Amino acid sequence: MTKRVVVLGGGVGGTLVANLLVKKLRPGEAEVILIDEDAQHVYQPGFLYVAFGQKQPANLTRPVRSLLDRRVRILTAKAQRIDPTAQVIATDHGDVHYDELVVATGSHLAPDEIPGLKEATHHFYTAEGAQALHEALKQFRGGHVVVGVAGVPYKCPPAPLEFVLMLDAELRAKGLRDKTEIHFVSPLPRVFPIETVAVKVAPIMESRGIQIHTFFNVESVDPKRREVVSLEGETVPYDLLVLIPPHRGAKVVIDSGLGEAGGWISTDRRTLKATAHPRMFVVGDATNLPISKSGSAAHFEADALVANLIADLRNESQEHKYNGKIMCFLETGAGKATLLDFDYNHPPQPPEPNRMYHWQKALFNQFYWWTVPQGRLPGEKQTKEQQEKAGD
To answer: pTM of the full predicted structure?
Structure first.
């Protein structure tokens, strides 16, 4: 009997894994089914540029079907519960049985967890949010701007820094910078989770007059008084507030009792297999791995995950290891960017921002649809020594 592999989620991780599977499985070895609620694939990094009027949301969405190999079967359905013991996914279109499952459900925003946040703040992590922020920026004529993070973890850790640095450049270009105070707030002890990046970016922010507030855990927002208050007792006034809401795991993961605190699935950092469920793999944001929640992480996880899943199907040993590889760009405004390239054992050492990295990011954004989801942009090919280090 032909075995069945189900991929739950049509984001970058799910689409890429499904495409790699059908390319690497033997003919007739297994059928691959991708389940997604609305069958739309969204390129979320583009929302940063929507906020500044540089991109349109309509250009950041494609039907999942258009990105999938024809051998992948797609089921447009809402997953309601996962039963890892029976190996069944309950959906609003009936039950789906699986022999192997890849959870690629991503994360969702949870602004309701902080009083006043939903009513008062802007963000650029959804199409609607980015458009609303763009309108607010068009109307802005000066005052206090507060930008930052309202909870960890959150998707794409460079994005809040990119926004505040691009905002600084935008206001200078409009002649509004001398009429504006910009504050950056973070619950972390520095402006970025990784110290080597923080020590590079913080001086840039300070040189541009951006005031930094670390150890700032947002407790509440008062829309009437226009103030954001931290658990530590600090209060910062605002005229424009841009806070990234807390992120949580997918509802189906939480409802199924599969997630740890926050709804993230405990995942082996090398094999990408769920630690508590032998026929389940996890990719991208859905994991609890100590790496950024980003499309880049999902991209580089995919090769090892697919190889280990196929080994599972064939009852072979799982020898492929993900080494924590992530590579992404960080915009610094005024047409410049830097590069973050790192793994579990090697922290990023970002070079000085320059125009080359900005244009490389622009090209990647442009050609994303024809590269990453289909697996045309190769993942990390590791040497034997790198494989051994990834197992440390």
So the answer is: 0.95
